[in-house]
Write a structure and sequence with these properties.
The chain is of the alpha/beta class. Helices cover 37% and strands 19% of the residues. It has helices at residues 15-24, 33-41, 49-53, 68-75, 81-90, 105-109, 117-122, 127-137, 151-161, 166-194, 250-266, 290-300, 318-324, 339-345, 403-416, 442-453, 472-480, 494-504; strands at residues 4-9, 28-31, 47-48, 97-101, 143-145, 208-213, 225-229, 241-244, 272-277, 280-286, 309-312, 331-334, 352-355, 368-373, 376-381, 394-395, 424-428, 431-436, 461-464, 484-487, 507-510.
């Protein structure tokens, strides 16, 4: 019995050459619409599916292959005598190869400007998923191909052995269900968004695309991969272009993401520089120039920045590059680098340089934050709000902060939002001077921040990511010469801290919003 192959593809890359190879191997070719036309125009004999089904394409192409003459030919099990007897009586010829890729739903919804709902819906494939799922179900007898990259393997095995190997057919069948799972996930997510509904549904399904295979994860014995969200996330690390240095590691990506989160908080009004180590900010500075901002970030903690990651919201010029080049840094992220800056920085073989024009573009609440736990996953909106309302900031002490103190307090609040809890941040002169991250109690976090400040705390201000349950932090702040504090408030013992501030002449403001980060 002559072998049959059905080819109907949206992405026609390589399909004509594939069809020609199959024809030379003796396969009868079936096809539809534009694919049939492309094959025929190449001088290759091809049979329209409608001549097999006896039913014309209709409804603007919505119905082409949804017919028993096609699906029985795909689903008939060759080693089942009853199946083979039935299709013989029905006049159905088995189909041995199915090469189909689906209507370009992803490409359609990613068009800019955004497409109308009607266009998106018209690019939801019906017949294609049905055929490839049928072929994958009957994988022992049918080789199913959804990616042009697999044409070569199929042809090579047919030429070598006269058939596609069982192992290859099983692998190709698995790719089908991965393909349709992603396809359906994109559709359901798009329709949910079009309805204005939250992505936090009763059943949570997301899909990502591979960016790169990591050398290893957090540790060398852990396998890892980097995936990106499907969509125009122009301000994310996945959109960055690496222009120098070796491949990013798992920890590089995690830490760089932390640096970008802090940088976005700084905005674009003033030049800003962020230094991060182990996903925690170790230095943040703002200034009149990007050099001034970087020097402030560096001076915050010259020890911890070594081997860290620096993110900047302005082009890196030569003067800044000269300073950056003085120490070992893993990564520098910036909207751009001047030619003179690149001439300096590319002399350092191991440094990674990433260009991300939208590096400082803020995140939005519709973006999701996910944390895997054993047996489940935690999903929440990203923390994109700094303070609920301006009116929520209120001074609770007798002494009001000065205008200058208030500027420094707001910088501290922006930074402490991104420090692992319990977190404390000390700021002075438009840059951090001490960061106390991730401690099991707040007083230890403050003591650590004071220690990092190395005697520079006199006249500084302090930010805390959550309220003070005791007055011990205020007492320690007073002793260190801290003059103003910003914190959420909300403890049943707030009065203890307020009283301690009044006694020490410290100004304290409440934001009414906490920023835990675990």
């Amino acid at each position: 019995m002559k072998k049959r192959a059905l080819i109907s593809v949206s992405d026609k890359t390589g399909c004509v050459d594939f069809a020609r190879e199959l024809a030379e191997l003796g396969y009868e070719l079936l096809s539809t619409g534009g694919t049939a036309k492309a094959i025929a125009e190449a001088g290759i004999e091809v049979t329209e599916v409608s001549s097999i089904t006896g039913f014309p394409e209709c409804l603007d192409g919505r119905v082409k292959t949804l017919h028993p003459m096609i699906h029985a030919g795909i689903l008939a099990m060759r080693d089942n005598p009853e199946h083979m007897e039935q299709i013989e009586k029905l006049g159905v010829t088995p189909i041995d190869i199915v090469a189909i890729n689906l209507y370009p739903f992803k490409a359609t919804i990613l068009k800019q400007p955004a497409v109308e709902l009607e266009e998106a819906v018209e690019n939801i494939d019906i017949g294609g998923p049905t055929m490839i799922r049928a072929a994958a179900k009957n994988w022992q007898d049918v080789a199913v191909i959804v990616e042009p990259a697999d044409y070569e393997t199929v042809i090579a095995e047919l030429k070598a052995n006269g058939e596609v190997s069982r192992e290859s057919k099983f692998r190709l069948a698995g790719k089908v269900f991965e393909h349709t799972a992603q396809y359906d996930t994109l559709i359901s997510g798009y329709l949910r968004k079009a309805r204005g509904e939250s992505p936090l549904a009763d059943s949570f399904t997301v899909t990502y695309e591979k960016v790169q295979e990591m050398r290893y994860g957090e540790n060398p014995h852990q396998a890892a991969m980097f995936y990106r969200e499907i969509g125009n996330i122009s301000n994310s690390l996945a959109a960055a272009q690496q222009i120098h240095g070796k491949e990013l590691s798992y920890n590089n990506i995690n830490d760089a993401n932390g640096a970008l989160d802090v940088l976005k908080e700084m905005g674009t009004v003033q030049p800003a520089a962020v230094a991060v180590k182990h996903a925690n900010p170790c230095g943040v500075g703002i200034g009149e120039t990007i050099l001034e901002a970087y020097l402030g970030a560096y001076d915050s903690d010259p020890v911890s920045i070594f081997g860290g990651i620096v993110a900047l919201n302005r082009e890196v010029d030569k003067a800044t590059a000269d300073e950056l080049a003085k120490i070992f840094l893993e990564i520098i992220i910036a909207p751009s680098f001047s030619e003179e800056a690149l001439a300096v920085l590319t002399l350092k073989k191991n440094i990674r340089l990433l260009v991300l024009p939208d590096a400082a573009k803020p995140n939005t609440p519709d973006m999701l934050d996910m944390k895997k736990v054993v047996g489940g996953i935690l999903v929440q909106q990203l923390d994109t709000v700094l303070i609920g309302e301006e009116s929520d900031i209120k001074c609770v002490t007798k002494r009001q902060p000065t205008a200058e103190e208030m500027e420094q307090l707001m910088l501290a609040w922006k930074v402490v939002k991104h420090i692992k809890s319990n977190g404390i941040c000390l700021v002075k002169g438009n840059h951090t001077i001490g960061v106390g991250p991730g401690q099991t109690n707040r007083i230890t976090a403050l003591e650590l921040a004071i220690k990092y400040a190395e005697g520079k705390t006199e006249g500084s201000v302090m930010g805390s990511d959550a309220f003070f349950p005791f007055s011990d932090c205020v007492d320690a702040a007073a002793k260190a010469g801290i003059t103003a504090i910003i914190q959420p408030g909300g403890s049943i013992r707030d009065e203890d801290s307020i009283k301690a501030c009044d006694e020490a002449g410290i100004a304290m403001v409440f934001t009414g919003m906490r920023h835990f980060k675990h």
